[in-house]
Write a structure and sequence with these properties.
The structure is a homodimer.
Chain A (H helix, E strand, L loop, with lengths): L2 E7 L3 E8 L4 E8 L6 H19 L3 E8 L2 E3 L4 E5 L4 E4 L1 H8 L5 E5 H12 L7 E7 L3 E7 L2 E2 L36 H13 L5 H5 L10 H9 L3 H25 L3 E5 L7 H14 L2 H4 L3 E4 L6 H16 L4
Helix pairs in contact in A: 1-2, 3-10, 4-6, 4-7, 6-7, 7-8
């Protein structure tokens, strides 16, 4: 059986794992990214960690996949711009490959790696057209279509979180007003709950988070209040699900997936969010887009980035082309 | 130089042309489709017409591309469902190929053929990511990405005309309320103008089209009234362009094209429509989607379907794969 290394680089930690060709993780190690020591140092420690996990797993890897936040050039294997890593046109694949004996290294955006993993080795096995979304602190999406990731110009496609909708008045970090992720995210859910408290609505959240504590409300707290029958919490998740459904109605009409995989922390709201989401999709999109459309939770969860990156390396090597 | 036949099948007429590898039309003939005589008869007359134009142009064709309305299976070369041709799972490519000596025949949806033509031999030459839209009686769109058409599940991707938007209250022929094409189409522009007249707005159109004549208003009449400074006509095209821009803002955020090609009859409104469209795109989408985005009118015009279909046949033969 063949093996690959998958790497997920974040601003704080890097996770490195050995994954077999079936998508099973064999060994995994987490090390601090220590961004301030610079890219070359990150690469040196990555090479060490890959050597170490490979030794522990007693396998020889065929290739390495690395998921990096921000913009990447997946053809050249460079990190074009990663704000929280301080990288700009950083030749990650070449530098790492040179330090691990020429083993091929493939770089892609972390969200695409996650969606590739779900599509080929997670909830999307057997589906040809997979729209993957993560509803976490922010919101991200990518499209896997007929064996390939969809990139568009500059690799910028799929920013569903920055589709702007009428009925959303929040100013987004990106500068636009009305971005879907200002509502459909953990941050957005908590914000709407705080506003309900501030408006003086009768909600258990006002009693649980008095005064300045209101700032501590999380999307998980909103789910708990929802389960206690709290009308304000129900209204927040209903509205969030409806707006998420409205954005997805446009996305499925344009991309025509046969599966939507929903991941990310806020997705743990589950049916509280997914029910109004589906209802809005069925109201706002043609039936042939949703009649056979499946909507599933992500399967790979915490190690999705590592598994996705490793499976992406497998895919690139097997296809002999850029996916 | 190599030559191809391009065919555009409509409910009333079929246009058959010989196109060289540079995308130049050599010979063209238009014959009645005569749908009621059945698919086999259509194929027989198509084969005859292809033989005839080939003879007149004194060339031997390498392949045939056929654009068909409705749903197609471009891999099998079948018309899956074409309401106005009465076809269902009709094996068009195989039947025609058998009648023209085994010359390969490639079938695709007519809008995709048009966009393929514009992308490879029209306004999109030199662009890698082309979103093509037609604003005609209805509205249609397709995406050409990195040398391939984008299909999605069931080949249904790209139905921008059926993205529903808040602020549109019309019921669409498809059954949904708020579809973009109920406004952003020749029909939609004329309808909004008729409504302005019905509301008793002061407009030259009310004087030009008194009483029941109001039903005769066309989108071209609205453009003429716009040029005469008519406030109602200006408001109609402003609103239409704004809503078109809102739909396109979502489409470019998801597809990330580097060019939008705008074709179709209603697109002749030109800047009257494109100016508010661009303004809305710049309001509603992140700047990195529109900063370098070009928006151009279609170049191939009337014979776009024929040229697009012929160039698609060339593309399929040259790539040796399904595009």
């Amino acid at each position: 059986m063949k093996h690959y290394a998958g790497v997920d680089i974040g601003g704080t930690n890097m996770v490195i794992g050995i994954v077999n060709e079936a998508g099973e993780t064999q060994k995994m190690v987490k090390i601090a990214t220590e961004v301030k020591r610079g890219g070359e140092d990150v690469v040196r420690r990555l090479a060490e960690a890959i050597g170490q996990v490979q030794k522990e797993a007693q396998v020889t890897i065929q290739g390495v996949g690395i998921g990096v936040p921000g913009f990447v050039d997946h053809v050249k294997g460079t990190s074009v711009f990663a704000a929280n890593l301080g990288w700009k046109d950083f030749p990650l694949a070449d530098l790492l490959s040179a330090q691990i004996g020429g083993v091929p290294v493939f770089v892609n955006n972390d969200v695409r790696m996650y969606v590739y993993g779900e599509a080929t080795g997670g909830a999307g096995r057997g589906f040809r057209h997979v729209l993957g979304i993560t509803v976490g602190t922010g919101m991200a999406a990518a499209m896997y279509n007929d064996g390939r990731l969809y990139y568009g110009s500059g690799g910028r496609a799929g920013e569903l979180g920055h589709v702007t909708l009428e009925g959303i008045d929040y100013v987004c970090n990106c500068g636009l007003t009305g971005c879907l992720e200002t509502v459909a995210s953990a941050t957005g859910i908590a914000r709407q709950a705080r506003e309900a408290v501030a408006r003086g609505e009768s909600t258990v959240l006002a009693r649980q988070f008095p005064g300045e504590k209101v700032a501590d409300i999380t999307s998980a707290d909103v789910s708990k209040a929802y389960d206690a029958g709290d009308p304000a919490a129900i209204a927040v998740l209903q509205r969030t699900g409806t707006l998420l459904g409205r954005g997805l109605a446009a996305a499925i009409t344009l991309f025509s997936p046969d599966l939507i995989v929903v991941g990310g922390g806020a997705a743990q709201a589950g049916e509280r969010l997914l029910k109004p989401m589906r209802e809005e999709i069925e109201r706002a999109a043609l039936s042939f887009y949703w009649r056979d459309l499946q909507i599933k939770p992500a399967e790979l969860l915490e190690d999705a980035g590592v598994v996705g990156s490793a499976l992406y390396a497998r895919g690139r090597l097997e296809a002999g082309e850029v996916l």
